[in-house]
Each structure stands twice: as C-alpha cells, then as structure tokens.
Amino acid sequence: MQCQICNNNEATIHLTEIHGDVHTEMHLCESCAAEQGIAAKSQIPLNELLSNLLASAPEEANMYAPTDSRQKCPRCGFSLELLKNEPLLGCPYDYEMFEKLLLPLIENTQDGKTAHCGKVPTKIPRGEKDLIELMNLRNLLEDAIRTEDYETAAKLRDKIAEYETDRNK
Amino acid sequence: MKLTEISNELNDWLDGDGPHSDIVISSRIRLARNLAEYKFLSRCSNTEKSQILERLKEVITSIDIGENIFYISIDQANELDRNFLVERHLISRHHALGKGPRGAVISRKESFTAMINEEDHLRIQVIKGGLQLGSCWEQINRIDDMIEQQVDYAFSPKYGYLTACPTNLGTGVRVSVMLHLPALKITGQVEKLLGAARDMNLAVRGLFGEGTEATGDFYQVSNQVSLGVREDELVSKFEKLIIPSIVEYERAARGHLLASGVDLLEDKISRATAVLKNARLISSEEALILLSHLRLGINMHEKQGASTPAIEQLCGLKDSSADSSGRITVRTINKLFLLTLPAHLQLNYGKPLDPTHRDVLRANIIRKTLNQ
C-alpha cells in the first residue's frame, strides 16, 4: 500500500481514529508521518501505552496497612512463619494484615496478577462493586489492545471514562 | 442413602455422551468459598468446624439444585466408602484423608458435589460428560448465587474471594478437563503437548487430580491462575481454544496411526484384547492401560470409521450385561474402568479384599464382560 500523502513510498504506519461513531483510517510512510507529527506517537511501545492507559487506576495502596513478618494475627494467631509448614493462611483478615509480605507470593503463584476481576457477591456495597467493574473494564481494554481490536478498545476507553466520571461525582 | 445403591452403576457423566466425548471424558468446574465470620480451617477448633459444617449443610440441602441430593459425613464414613467417593470423583483425595468434622452433599446423578471443610470451608463442583464447560459454569454460578443469599462469603474488593491458600485466591475457580490421549502417547507426542500446556500456566495431572500420575493415558488439564481473570473468560478460553486444540492434536495422531502406524495400532489393540479376554489376575494399573487401548479402538471405529482386523475383532465382541445395547461400546469400557477400581470392587463384593483377591475379581469381571 502506498502512502496517502506522497503517493510514492510504502505506507508502513496505519492509523485508525475513532471519534464517537466516526471511524477514519490513514496509511502513511514514515517520513510523511513524521512531517505530520504523528510518527512518534505511533511508536509508543505496547507496555508503555498500557501503563499510561492504566495509570488512572484509583489509589488502593492505602487499603491495607503494612506489617512486621514476626507479628501474629490478633484474630487467628497466624504468623508468616507457619507458611513454611503448609501454604495455608489462618483467616480472611491475614490477607489484609500481611499484605505487603504476601504480595510477592500472590504475584508469583498468580502469574503476576494482583487484583481480582470477575464475579462479585451481590451483597457487597455498591462502591466496591463499581471498583471491580472498573478493573474488569481495564482488563478487557488490555485484551483488546493486545489483540489489536482497536474498535472495541475505543468503546471500552469511553466506558471507563464514563465510569470514572460517575465515581468522581 | 447407601453407597451400594450407586456402586454398580455408571454415573451420568461417564455415559459416553457429550461433545468430543471420544477424547474429552469430563468437564468440571469448582469454586472455593469461605464464610466471612470464621477463621480458615487450619486455625479452627473442632467445635468451630462442626458449626461451619452444620451451617453449610443446612444451607446447601435447602436450595434447589434441580436434582435429588444426599448428605454423607466424611469423618464418620469408613475408609472404603471414602475411597469409593474419590474413585467416582465425588470428593477429593484431600477430603478423604482430612481431619475433623467434614462432609459432602452430593446430587443423586453425581453431577454436583459440595465438599464442606475440605481445604476451604466450602468447595462446590459441577461435572459433566464431554466438553461442556459453559454449561458447568452456568450451573455452578447459579448454585453459588443461591448459597450466597444465605451466607456471607469472605470477599475483598481487591483480592476477590479469600481462600485458605493464595493459589485459589480471586475467583476461587478451578476448571478441569479430563482427556483421553492414547494416540498422542503411542506416537510419542504427549510430552511435547504437555510441555506446551505447562508453558501456558496450565496444570496437567493424572486421573485423580493433585499428586496422581497419568495412568491409562488419562490427563487432567486445569488452570493455575485464579486471580485477575474473569470466570467466563477462563471458561471460554478452555472451551473454545485450549481443549479443542488438544482434541485436534489427538485426532491428528489417531489419523497418523491409521495412515502410517497401523502395525503399532494393531499391536496395541490386539494385545490388550487378548490379555483382557484371558487374564486370571490383573492389577488396577494394567487394567487401566489395556482398557485405554480398547477405548481407543472402539472410538476410532465409531468416530473415524477405522476398520483394521484388530478393531473389527474388538468391535465384534458382545456385551450382554443387563443395561447394554448388546454390543461392546465406549460405555462398556467406561463401566469396566469404573467398576474395576479397588474400592468399587470391594464395595460391590461386600467386604475388604487383599490385593491378590482384588486382582482375581477384576480379571473375572473383565473376562466375563468380553467373553460373552
């Protein structure tokens, strides 16, 4: 395919822009794209793109407090030393109590994943449900970008923006 | 209910029906859940375990899962009964060997089990024949919703359903598919395939799950990651991508055997037929391996129209058991697989037997079925 501007060089940069229902495509060579000031944009590595897209994640780090490894859980008496015998925690609260120390283990056993997405009990408060829905949407967006399904990605981007606006109201 | 009411029957999901059932034996989905107000089981006293057991037993027996159910106390059951339930995939080996008050609610058709006080307070599973993961998910999700109406599950917005072991954290979902891959084994390709599965973060285990070897060419493939992946996404990936690819590999290997490895195929099926028709003593492991080759021959005849002398001889055998169609089918073989397992043999015989007596009884049952 030839560049749409110079009609001479091979088009190596393919841009798809979606604004609402309007869908436009551009096919350019590198030098024409650079003149248009869009070449640099299209060269953003996927992981950088993702981290930018996901950077707006709400602050959840303060949800759980840091802790000491020798400390015992006041609810069940569990300490992390017990994990050496069998990989079982003592009570649900341990995930909160020992979060900082458990996180590497969770990351390691869960292929780097550290946040839930999926089913949510019907009884939990509305705000918490929204948080998980937002997480689900971000995962879908990540998948859509990975599979280069930009049309779906654009729709998801808009939906995430809507959700975030609603949450901030 | 007495276990002898089911010990001589084939369970529904082993009936030989369901999509891709020539290769996919069963689809299973289980969910791990815990009650918010209790500690995890490793820190619970027996009194607390009893309270959890009573509460969950009451809740689960009160909901309508669409078929009759029965309850069995696992800590009060004898070893033979517990092993029998493991052989039928109704409880895990971990549950059978556990300590303290624990039980299981089981549906009469054996498609649903709730294990209470296994590693988590509650583990519910739905199992179906062939590749039917979507349908398993639909059913287990509905049952989970009904249970959740009556209890508070331990849940965190960040980490999802909280489980005793962090390997089940998040969705608490374990998707497991039991596959019969004899042609890949015979053609020496199974290790390559299993290596690829492990690279995709899938666990590959034997017939009875964790800690068991793949005997008789049966492999159980399941997910290892339960956090950060939606349940429907995981189920769909297994049902539409992972399992169909493995099924295609196995089909291709069966085709390859017919096209250019027919002597190898003939040898496996002829030897298995000859030994099983004549043996006077046979171990559980040898029976599984040889019955696997008969299962391959019958499926290749039925699904791929294969017609070699050994396959013709095998498919010409009659099965005159009361509930059979008169000729040997995959159902006949599945039934032999199940009824010749150690605990099934002993429960149906009426008392515990030493290994030699079990080997004699097993050989008798198989010989009688194949020589009718």
Q: In DSSP terms, counting alpha (H) and pi (I) runs of 4 or more, how many helices of chain B?
A: 13
Number of helices of chain A: 7
Helix content range of the residues of chain A, please? 40-55%
Number of domains of chain A: 3
Give the end-to-end Cα distance of chain A, rounded to a whole number of Å. Answer: 47 Å
**Widest beta sheet: strand line-up of chain B:** 2-3-4-5-1-8-10-9
Q: How many beta-strand runs of chain A?
A: 2
Averaged pLDDT of chain A, please?
A: 77
Low-confidence stretches of chain A: 39-67
Helix content of chain B: 40-55%
Write the layout of secondary structure elements.
The complex is a heterodimer of chains A (169) and B (372).
Chain A lengths: L12 E7 L2 E7 L1 H6 L3 H4 L3 H9 L39 H4 L1 H11 L16 H21 L3 H19 L1
Antiparallel strand pairs in A: 1-2
Helix pairs in contact in A: 3-6, 6-7
Chain B lengths: L23 E10 L12 H17 L6 E5 L5 H9 L5 H5 L5 E5 L4 E5 L5 E8 L3 H16 L6 E2 L3 E2 L11 E8 L1 H5 L3 H10 L2 E4 L12 E6 L7 H30 L1 H17 L5 H21 L4 H7 L2 E2 L6 E2 L2 H10 L2 H8 L5 H16 L2
Antiparallel strand pairs in B: 1-5, 1-8, 2-3, 3-4, 4-5, 6-7, 8-10, 9-10, 11-12
